[in-house]
Specification:
By secondary structure, the protein is an alpha/beta fold. The chain is built from 9 helices and 7 strands.
Length: about 260
């Protein structure tokens, strides 16, 4: 996607035996690289790596994933200079572009992860345009879960269980956003599996006013918001040198 948009990008693939110290050193190198405005570390890392320590080591001005504690705090207080995690931001943008009224809507988020559920709740409850929702965060331990999810004008599934949300969880005319992506066995596929969401698409689609597919729904929005955060980081960080093109690179044409 960076190539398609004409952005410089650098992919570093380290061995599984890379030490914590070595990884921290690479992060610091990128923190001080004027040609790099956005950094993300692929998750999950090998078990011997302290992922939280790696995230804290990122320059928060380059944390385009939005997981650094400083950016989490900015989301809590509504500081627009922080970076919002890409999937929650993509969900909000998807609702906006689809002309779904968020203001005052009853939103139920199924899932409480730091990657989706919690930041999405904070984002949609903010006192500002394209937010102002009444947000409920539910999860696998919530009592009378079906009653909670059926109260939603907008139901967002991010629980990480294939086809968890059934017709019984959804009221007629609800908007359903499926954030989940799960592999299920499929012997008819050459890969041996197929991708499905957290929502049983066929049965829920009969009741929902709008519903996102998996794949092809929230996933592309996550990528788009990553690119958006990167451009925002560049503009806010300011300056930075222009890297010399690689000898074998073929710069894309930008129309």
């Amino acid at each position: 996607m960076c190539r398609e948009l004409g952005l410089h990008s650098l992919k570093l693939e380290l061995t599984a035996s890379t030490t914590q110290a070595a990884l921290l050193t690479r992060v610091q190198e990128l923190n001080h690289d004027a040609a790099i405005h956005g950094i993300l570390v692929q998750s999950p890392p090998p078990k011997h790596i302290d992922e939280a320590a790696i995230v804290r080591a990122l320059d928060p001005r380059k944390d385009v994933d939005g997981f650094h504690p400083e950016n989490v705090a900015k989301l809590v207080i509504g500081d627009p200079n922080g970076f919002v995690p890409c999937t929650p931001l993509g969900v909000q943008r998807l609702l906006i572009e689809s002309k779904i009224d968020i203001d005052g809507a009853a939103v139920v988020i199924l899932g409480r992860s730091l990657i989706v559920g919690k930041p999405l709740a904070l984002l949609l409850m903010q006192k500002k345009k394209n937010a102002n929702a009444t947000v409920t965060v539910a999860h696998s331990h919530s009592r009378d879960l079906e009653k909670i999810t059926r109260s939603a004008d907008i139901l967002i599934a991010a629980i990480g269980q294939a086809n968890f949300v059934k017709s019984k969880h959804v009221r007629d005319g609800a908007i359903v956003i499926d954030v989940g992506i799960n592999r299920v066995e499929n012997s008819g596929n050459e890969r041996g599996y197929r991708l499905v969401g957290d929502v049983a698409l066929d049965e829920v689609a009969e009741k929902a006013a709008r519903i996102t597919p998996v794949p092809g729904g929230v996933g592309p929005m996550t990528i788009a918001m990553l690119m958006s955060n990167t451009v925002k980081a560049c503009r806010q960080f300011g300056g930075g040198g222009s890297p010399e093109p690689h000898a074998n690179s073929n710069p894309p044409r930008i129309d």
